[in-house]
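Project standup — Tuesday

K.O.: blocked on the structure for the chain from last sprint. Re-posting the sequence here as requested.
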Amino acid sequence: MDISCIILAGGKSLRLGRNKTLEVIGGKSLLERVVSGVSFLESDVIIVISPEHVLVPQKNRPKVRTITDIYPGKSSLGGIYTGITASNSFYNLVVACDMPFLNQKLLRYMIGLSPGYDLVVPRVGSLVEPLHAVYSKACLPPIESLLKEGTLKLDRLFSLVKVRYVEAEEIDRFDPEHLSFFNINTEADLQRAIKLAGEGHDKR
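H.V.: unblocked you, prediction finished:
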């Protein structure tokens, strides 16, 4: 299936206090890990950054390009809109730049569910993971409407599009520890990620 990958890297890393994408985990920077985590798809990879953000170039990765947020300061919703707009694919895997333990089998499963839906998103209980989801280009008009009215909450999109939730029992088949959704915000998160990588949790 024709699909592109969008990595959202426009956050300010306020809680960590420094650029989290440069932090080294298991011998790779966090951003390199995420790019590697989606590269198995052999798809175009679009990294969305804020205007003031500078990233280390991804060497020897011709399918990776970096673009600047169309709606800077408009949260993840603006980043998703920017990435989907720039994509040449109808379906787009969107992940955050601070998820070091992406699971290839779970991602493939989610992508396989995409036909017939506008959004495929994991859900564990009441917790939804919209920054680990597959969006179609059909999401662009409702996202643009939300942005123009000043609504930045991603969950407002769910009632406007056709959603396929990936429930906990489905996720458990591929990622019983739910490490796919582990993201780095604090120093404690970073140290846990380094420990997990050292224990081999990134080889999945």
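K.O.: great, moving the ticket to review. Strands lie at 3-8, 24-25, 28-29, 45-49, 64-68, 91-96, 119-124, 127-128, 132-136, 163-166. DSSP finds six helices and ten strands in the chain.
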